[in-house]
């Protein structure tokens, strides 16, 4: 039995401060924290809610300690926002679950993650980064392209107009994202093929695929793109399915290679999409995956493989415990 602290950013808290629904889309709902607590309790552990990185800093400064921390704190600002809680925990030598500050910072900045995996020989679509309006003229990638904010999750900033067909659309699209999200824009060669998200458990050579889920979009207003709006209306617009064929197995192999390359730990997801030739390509990694028992992709993949939510949490705790306490 361990005393396990839980770090998180709660949507309701930020909503009360006036943040918009889109701004807080990545944060946890109260039922997620309650589900994590319930699972940990059923495994024999006691829990304490810590909250945000700022709350964690206060608690650590007051001398509070835990045997292990379940880190789900996303942070609000900057490329290092997801790294804040684990960096504090490392400073005070408190062990925690999931990725370290380096992995979380690299993977949040999608262009850096793509650069790292590409340099390791892992296939990913060609890309460019637009930091200012003047950078648009230097983009020389073949159309169609795909644009998105460089450091957002939950498909924030992705919509029907993210697929770019010509230079005029590239200009207007980048201007829109730069103004709205106040961060660089990732510009990629559009991948028209099948899309997968691979659930991963474990660390390093012990990492393995929990299952590969194909994202199949139903007929709707944004039929080609797993957009923010499609994710928001997941039940009505998405028909996910667990798949096991040659392409999905190639996707899982690529995802594991990327996970190890980027330093993912304990549990998370890697998103993969096929190009026009049917070859799998790395899209992005999520080493701090959502854990809502019904709506989040990693628990959904677990459920599709007949792994209960409690068992999923148990495997994550076991991975962290083996890594830390061996």
What does this structure look like?
- This is D-alanine--D-alanine ligase.
- With about 325 residues, the chain is α+β, with helices and mostly antiparallel strands.
- It folds into 3 domains: about 5-95, Rossmann fold, CATH 3.40.50; about 125-190, ATP-grasp fold, A domain (Dna Ligase, domain 1), CATH 3.30.1490.20; about 190-325, ATP-grasp fold, B domain (D-amino Acid Aminotransferase, Chain A, domain 1, 2-Layer Sandwich), CATH 3.30.470.20.
- It contains 12 helices and 12 strands.
- The strands form 3 sheets. Strands 10-9-8-11-12 form a 5-stranded antiparallel β-sheet, sandwiched between helices. The chain has a 4-stranded antiparallel β-sheet with strand order 4-7-5-6, with helices on one face. Strands 2-1-3 form a 3-stranded parallel β-sheet, with helices on both faces.
- β11 and β12 form a beta hairpin.
- α2 (about 30-40) packs across α12 (about 310-325) and α3 (about 55-60) packs parallel to α4 (about 85-90).
CATH architecture of the largest domain: 2-Layer Sandwich
Radius of gyration: 19 Å
Largest beta sheet, briefly? 5 strands, antiparallel
Shape: globular
Proportion of strand residues: 15-25%
Secondary-structure element order, N to C: EHHEHEHHHEEEHEEEHHEHEEHH
The end-to-end span amounts to 16 Å
| CATH superfamily membership of the largest domain | ATP-grasp fold, B domain
Number of helices: 12
The strand count comes to 12
Structurally, how many domains make up the residues? 3
| CATH fold label of the largest domain | D-amino Acid Aminotransferase, Chain A, domain 1
Family: Belongs to the D-alanine--D-alanine ligase family.
Protein name: D-alanine--D-alanine ligase
InterPro entries: ATP-grasp, ATP_grasp_subdomain_1, Dala_Dala_lig_C
Domain ATP-grasp: 114-318
């Amino acid at each position: 039995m361990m005393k396990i602290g839980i770090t998180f950013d709660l949507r309701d808290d930020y909503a009360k401060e006036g943040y918009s629904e889109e701004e807080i889309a990545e944060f946890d709902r109260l039922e997620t924290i309650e589900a994590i607590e319930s699972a940990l309790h059923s495994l024999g552990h006691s829990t304490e809610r810590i909250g945000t990185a700022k709350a964690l800093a206060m608690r650590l400064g007051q001398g509070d300690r835990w045997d292990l921390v379940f880190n789900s704190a996303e942070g609000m600002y900057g490329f290092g926002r997801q790294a804040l809680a684990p960096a504090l925990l490392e400073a005070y030598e408190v062990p925690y679950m999931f990725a370290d500050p380096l992995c979380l910072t690299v993977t949040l900045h999608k262009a850096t993650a793509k650069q790292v995996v590409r340099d390791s020989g892992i296939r990913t679509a060609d890309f460019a980064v637009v930091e200012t309006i003047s950078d648009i003229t230097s983009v020389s990638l073949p159309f169609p392209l795909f644009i998105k904010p460089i450091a957002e999750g939950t498909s924030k900033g992705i919509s029907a107009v993210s697929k770019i067909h010509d230079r005029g659309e590239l200009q207007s699209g980048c201007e829109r994202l730069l103004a709205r999200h106040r961060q660089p824009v990732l510009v990629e060669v559009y991948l028209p093929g099948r899309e997968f998200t691979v659930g991963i458990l474990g660390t390093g050579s012990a990492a393995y695929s929990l299952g590969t889920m194909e994202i199949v979009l139903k007929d709707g207003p944004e039929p080609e793109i797993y957009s923010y709006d499609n994710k928001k209306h997941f039940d009505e617009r998405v028909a996910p399915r667990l798949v096991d064929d040659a392409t999905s197995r190639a996707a899982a192999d690529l995802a594991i290679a990327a996970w190890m390359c980027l330093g993912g730990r304990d549990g998370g997801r890697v998103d993969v999409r096929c190009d026009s030739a049917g070859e799998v390509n790395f899209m992005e990694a999520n080493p701090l995956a959502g854990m809502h028992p019904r709506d989040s992709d990693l628990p959904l993949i677990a459920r599709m493989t007949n792994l209960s939510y409690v068992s999923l949490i148990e495997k994550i705790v076991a991975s962290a415990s083996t890594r830390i306490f061996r």
